[in-house]
User: Which sequence fits this backbone?
């Protein structure tokens, strides 16, 4: 039941947003505030970062809880994160630039927070395209190396949100702390594995 439950939970924010937009069309200002466009853009970006951090957390939770079935939903959660962030970018293109590509290029060149956000999205696009079992078989060891881009993509996403925040940094600080804890856990796990391999090698040499 993990996958159906994940589908439902990850779809709930989109369902809420659809209802809010519908309500907004009927009674302007009733659901999304004084600036509905800004609210939608922020909503999609926030949930994109949250789901991305959740995807990064799955390996840690699986290891800490000793529950391997969690890995079955890691790809699904990652794809949902990409979907939210892709919608975030597409909404920006439609609502704020009206698909004026010259303006988009200028924004990318002149606004660092857009540059880092776009870089993160490109990384996640590469991961989404190669997330299938077929690509995993084709790339073999390189697939694991490629999918480590999840870490810098998430870091760039947090930086993007940080630079966008004008006041009330509590939420973005929470995301940064969450990401820092995940990085620390990965480093500790890698260090423990190196020690374990070193102990095994030492034991083998002593037997010889």
Assistant:
């Amino acid at each position: 039941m993990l996958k159906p439950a994940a589908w439902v939970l990850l779809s709930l924010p989109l369902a809420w947003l659809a209802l809010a937009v519908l309500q907004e069309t009927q009674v302007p200002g009733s659901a999304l505030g004084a600036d509905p466009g800004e609210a939608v853009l922020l909503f999609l970006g926030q949930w994109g970062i949250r789901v991305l951090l959740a995807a990064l957390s799955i390996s840690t939770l699986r290891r800490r809880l000793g529950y391997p079935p969690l890995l079955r939903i890691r790809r699904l959660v990652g794809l949902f994160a990409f979907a939210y962030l892709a919608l975030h970018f597409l909404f920006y293109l439609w609502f704020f630039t009206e698909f004026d590509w010259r303006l988009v290029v200028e924004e990318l060149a002149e606004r660092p927070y857009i540059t880092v956000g776009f870089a993160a999205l490109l990384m996640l696009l590469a991961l989404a395209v190669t997330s299938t079992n077929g690509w995993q078989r084709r790339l073999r060891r390189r697939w694991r190396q490629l999918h480590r881009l999840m870490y810098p993509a998430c870091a760039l996403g947090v930086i993007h949100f940080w630079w966008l925040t004008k006041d009330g940094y509590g939420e973005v600080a929470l995301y940064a702390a969450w990401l820092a804890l995940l990085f620390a856990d990965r480093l500790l796990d890698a260090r423990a594995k190196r020690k374990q391999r070193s102990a095994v090698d030492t034991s083998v040499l002593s037997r010889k």
Remarks:
- The mean pLDDT is 90.
